[in-house]
Amino acid sequence: MNELVQDTGRAVAFLSRLPVPERFFEGDTVSISRPARAYGFAGLVISLPGALVLSLLLVMGLAPLFAAALAVSCHLLVTGALHEDGLADCADGFGGGSDRDRTLTIMKDSTIGAYGGIALVMSLVLRVAGIAALAGAVSPVAATLGFLAAGVVSRAAMVWHWQALPAAKTDGVAASAGQPDDGSMRFALISGAVLGFVLALRSIGAGGAVFMLVLVAAACIAFTRFAERKIGGHTGDTIGATQQICEVAALLGLALWS
After folding, report:
1. What mean pLDDT comes out for the span 241-257?
2. DSSP of 62-131, one letter per residue?
3. Can you tell me the distance from the alpha carbon of 142 to that of 204, in angstroms, rounded to the nearest whole number?
4. Structure pTM?
């Protein structure tokens, strides 16, 4: 089996609850970090169910806000709220931690506090509002392509955050998984940017596609630097939070340009 196809299947299995055939894991001696190069492609696959729901409901004439809410709900079922969990833990830790050790301790606690709850609500509201704004301004097909573009570029951005910082803890899941190498990171960024650009190009045009990518890059860099200052590295939670932040940034760019 082609290595890229296999890595895409493994990435889909890691990032979602979608069933992936066993043949994608035959002779599996690959670390979690290698399939990261395919995160952009995995983002496309993972976003397809929600995109189909959005397209169908818009074609049926449902109000954009309701269609967007149901599409995001479908997406949450597909991902098992994996990245939302990371966002909530980061918000609690970064908001309540007075120093690095305290921040990491709070992030490790599975209990969601006020900061985490607010972050989850804002993430859901902003994503639903962004999709609804886009759907209200363009055709159902264009809105669906924009939804897919946000899913692609936000997951590709995770790989840059993961590779740019060392592991913040020596005993965490992120530390045991290792880091993507430079080649995997570059492939993920280039393929994710190109695929996201093409989808956004068909959605709102070249200017909007570039604007979306610029906002995503700015959001990813800003959050990565913030995490470096707070805890000195990345964790599984900060990787997930990167996806959420960059997806909101992508939808913001699409909605503003439309």
Report:
1. 97
2. --HHHHHHHHHHHHHHHHTTHHHHHHHHHHHHHHH-SSHHHHHHHHH--S--HHHHHHHHHHHHHHHHHH
3. 7
4. 0.94
